[in-house]
Specification:
By secondary structure, the protein is mainly alpha-helical. It contains 15 helices and 4 strands.
Length: 373
């Protein structure tokens, strides 16, 4: 009877979700457009940065510098006058504006140290930071090659044999797409589970459940399996059609093993969402609470920054977070093709963490039900 109640209550949750257009749009967006845009966006990489050049020297050296800027790092330089430089940067047309002064070549050949002015639009933070270094290197190399009449190729003392594993071409979309799916699994599971409970309270249907012959365990279990199933199905479709299909990102390991780990992770995060739903009294409160919980989980789990670069205290504390183990097992399976013999410790950790979170959420849910009764 208990299993039948959990099944029917879970189906009721799925029907309730199907009547919530906002949540449906959020699910579709999170596992389609969000994945694609995250894979294609490369904020840490200089790509097609607009640059304008004021050539007041009109010399072979200045022409050489102008010709050194080309795609994909920079767009073709736009030649402008000194009077246009500030106006174009104020309008956001150029990220970089390089001003080559008069008699620049003569001063270089005379052994002087002339200066070139570089104006940077720092509102484009990532491009400004990386691009200024690129430009400094490009100008220095071109001036040095011009003075020496040849490009000096120094023989390194040590020959570094570089072998890139798991992503030989260093394609950033491979990393971005998979990590975005991992982050969205965490976010959507917490949101859907917490919103399901708050929706019951706001619509007054929680009182209906109180007079039915069902227990808090059955109510909570139904929300866990129903919302977990939705996220698991959406992530499976996204990984198959968006990541592997549209973005052509190769997946090395077993998808069945990955989704088994994802199911254990969903057991933890949906329980966490219900626990947060018992604390929040409305959806706005739940949203604020979500920001306090979700951001640290995603930023400190190793998905954005390697855990080894974090303080040791943070590494120890994050061992009790389910996202830490889910990120580790997902990267091992999807990137490196690891099997169960490698990721089984993370499976055990997720099971234990999920059981603790489910127990804490159930205890809190029973207290909440008791107060409402």
């Amino acid at each position: 009877m208990s299993m039948a109640n959990i099944l029917h209550l879970g189906i009721k949750e799925l029907r309730s979700l199907s009547r919530d257009p906002v949540m449906l749009v959020l699910i579709v967006y999170a596992f389609t457009l969000s994945i694609y845009s995250r894979a294609k966006a490369q904020p840490e990489t200089l790509n097609k940065a607009p640059i304008a050049i004021v050539d007041e020297d009109q010399s072979p050296l200045s022409a050489r510098i102008v010709g050194a800027f080309y795609p994909p790092y920079f767009l073709r330089p736009v030649m402008i006058t000194h009077a246009e430089m500030d106006a174009r940067m104020d309008a956001g047309l150029d990220t970089f504006a390089l001003d080559i002064p008069p008699e620049f070549q003569r001063d270089v050949l005379a052994g002087r140290a002339p200066s070139i002015q570089l104006n940077v639009d720092a509102t484009r933070m990532s491009q400004a930071f990386n691009g200024s270094g690129y430009i400094r290197t490009i100008v220095s190399d071109e001036v040095q090659a011009f003075v020496q009449r040849h490009r000096q190729n120094t023989t390194p003392t040590v020959d570094l044999a570089l072998r890139v594993r798991f992503n030989p071409s260093l394609t950033k979309s491979w990393f971005g797409a998979v990590m975005e799916i991992i982050n969205k699994v965490t976010m959507l599971s917490i949101v859907l589970a917490g919103a399901a409970l708050i929706r019951e309270r706001e619509h007054g249907t929680i009182e209906h459940l109180l007079v039915m012959p069902v227990t808090p365990f059955e109510i909570m279990s139904s929300k866990v399996w129903a919302m977990g199933l939705v996220v698991l199905a959406a992530s499976a479709l996204s990984l198959t059609f968006i990541v592997q299909g549209l973005l052509s990102v190769p997946v090395e390991g077993s998808l069945a093993l990955f989704f088994t780990g994802a199911a254990l992770h969903l057991f933890s995060t949906t329980s966490m969402g219900i626990f947060m739903g018992t604390i929040a009294r409305s959806m706005p409160q739940f949203g604020l609470l979500l920001m306090l919980v979700l951001l640290p989980l995603q930023m400190l789990s190793g998905g954005m920054t390697p855990r080894e670069s974090m303080p040791e205290f943070v590494q120890v504390v994050m061992q009790v977070a389910p996202t830490t183990h889910f990120v580790s097992l997902s990267q091992a399976i999807l990137y490196r093709g690891a099997g169960l013999n490698v990721v089984w410790p993370h499976f055990i950790a997720l099971t234990l963490i999920g059981a603790c979170l489910f127990g804490a959420a159930l205890s809190r849910f029973r207290k909440t039900i008791g107060i409402m009764a």
